[in-house]
Amino acid sequence: MKLSYTTVDVFTDRKFGGNPLAVVPDAQGLSTERMQAIAVEFNYAETTFVLTPKDPAHTAHVRIFTPKAEMPFAGHPNVGTAFVLASMGRVTGDSLVFEEKAGLVPMEIVRDKGQVVATHLLAPQKMSVGEEVSTELVAEACGLAADRIETAIHRPIIAACGVTFLFAELKSRADLAAAQGRSDVFARHLPMDRTVGIHLYVRAKEGEIDIQTRMFAPLYGVPEDPATGGANVALIGLLGHLDRRADLTLSQTIGQGFDMGRPSILQAWAEKKAGKVVATKIGGRCVPMMNGTIDLT
Fold first, then answer.
1. Catalytic hit among 33, 41, 46, 224
2. Is 46 a catalytic residue?
3. How far is the C-alpha of 126 from the C-alpha of 123, rounded, in Å?
4. Coil, strand or helix: which one is 219?
5. CA–CA distance, 232 with 213 (Å, rounded to integer)
6. Among 31, 158, 190, 263, which lies 20 to 30 A Cα-Cα from 112?
């Protein structure tokens, strides 16, 4: 059995930037165990497997794996998979819908002179806010002093738009650069069923970028992620939730991966009505990298 695959760099307009993704566009018949093994072989933050949709009105059923576990939803895998399928001519028009464990993920295709250049997704679930977590725990897990965590607007807090992350704002760009994820602390205090990882951010205006972020998820086999759409789509929702205005449309350009040599640019939007965040979106550009064959014989 031979399977074709494509890799793309996601949330970037240049090769060797952004977050690499492997896409297996014809994965029908693969077992869960075989999908997990292939994800381990690629050893990217995530690998996606495209299957026939359960509802023919939808584009595809997509399964997403890190090197350690399956994800119910994630951002850069959806953005990259939509880019690959659209580039292959497998979708008509500029709208598609993926079936995933977290729900339906609507996608939009962006073209330039007929070429697919970017995709955007609407989060499959409304933004939800969970428990607060101590600054001391977050600081220990990220190798920082507790007083470097900014608590003027919020304490470290769990939030989600389909997948759960722990969010903490830092006081400076230098603090963000100094952070180091500690897998031993995650193993003791932040198990996989509590959060995927810690998403740190700082409001740092750098050219077109409004916010810089870093994300550590060592228990999922991702010591650090170059670009985390699932976390940033929840972050924009959290920022909208915390804003005192009852109605707003919030748009931010988010940078990630700069401190690990994989600069990524994500466009994030949140819509709030009558005091509630009703929709969150994330998107960005993609660049094709490799095509090949997986030999399973």
1. 46
2. yes
3. 7
4. helix
5. 8
6. 263
- Cβ atoms of residues 196 and 217 within 8 Å: yes
Backbone angles phi, psi at 5, to 5 degrees: -145, 160
Q: Name the residue type at position 274.
A: A
Q: Give the separation between CA 226 and CA 75, rounded to whole angstroms.
A: 12
Looking at residue 122, its pLDDT comes to: 98
Q: Which amino acid is at 221?
A: G
Pairwise CA distance, residues 141 & 133, whole Å: 12
Side-chain-side CA neighbours of residue 118 (13 Å) = 16
Tell me the per-residue pLDDT of 213-233, one tens digit each, with 9 for 90 and over.
999 999 999 999 999 999 999
The C-alpha atoms of residue 142 and residue 195 are separated, in whole angstroms, by 15
**Section 244-256 average pLDDT:** 97
Question: How many Å is the Cα radius of gyration of the chain?
Answer: 18
For residue 160, what is the enclosing H or E element?
strand 157-160
Please choose, from the candidates 39, 81, 74, the residue with its C-alpha nearest in 3D space to the C-alpha of residue 60: 81
- Give the position of tokens 């995650």: 186
27 within 8 A of 49, measured Cβ to Cβ: yes
